[in-house]
Amino acid sequence: MEGHPYGYNIPISEKTKEVPWEEKVRVYEEVKSDFRFKEFLFGCLNCGVCTASCPSNRFFDYSPREIVQRFLEEDVEVIYDMMHEYIWACSQCFTCWIRCPFVNNPGGLVIIMREVAVRNAFEATKDLLKPYGRVLLKVMTTGNQLSADMLQPDFFPDWGPKMQDNMENVRAKRMAIPFDVGKSVKTAWEVSLETAIEMYTIWRETGIFEMLEKLDPNLYNVIMDIVEENEERWEELLEEEEE
Ligand code: SF4
Ligand code: SF4
User: Fold this and answer.
1) 106 CA distance to ligand 2 centroid (A)?
2) 14-120: what fold?
């Protein structure tokens, strides 16, 4: 019978079946050695509250309870398989965390699994993230990819009719906020050189650039051109200030 005897009803993919056991254990240990792991998993009643509350569960064959259970069973095979496509169904809303009687954080476990998947440059991860190149470019160079004025109810009919009323005069309401909260595309995507340099330092020190290079070398080159240009400008500014 395909699938997992205790409920993971997605067949283990042929590609992950071929991966040597030692490699799966290595990846599994990489996830478990993350310092956050112990803060995200305490035990499980198997009550299913997390899955019942999970918005992604409504649309996909995806269950946070499954993830928690597989970790508690130390099911290396299934966890490794989940890390290829399954985990990308999570929308990171953390309702599971808020509602779990054990205060487990399945969404947090997904964060760790995704980070490890990216660090290991799984082919499935590369394919899944390909359409998000533009989002990554904006986030990594400006720290932001969405601005308030990009969220228009016309683009999201599923928000319902009430949203149209709420959005009336929304621009005036946003402009009344007395500090800049990225109210428009212009201000949200404009970042001071100093802030940009701090951001690049974070990306560099936390290994994000390295992860990106493995994931998408072309995008990495485009982003590094922008980063290096800004870093040069910053150096010049500092030198000018010293003179
Ligand atoms: S964080 Fe992920 S797993 Fe948890 S409820 Fe939200 S979508 Fe589901
Ligand atoms: S809500 Fe918590 S205890 Fe219940 S199944 Fe989910 S992870 Fe387990």
Assistant:
1) 9
2) Fumarate Reductase Iron-sulfur Protein; Chain B, domain 2 (1.10.1060)
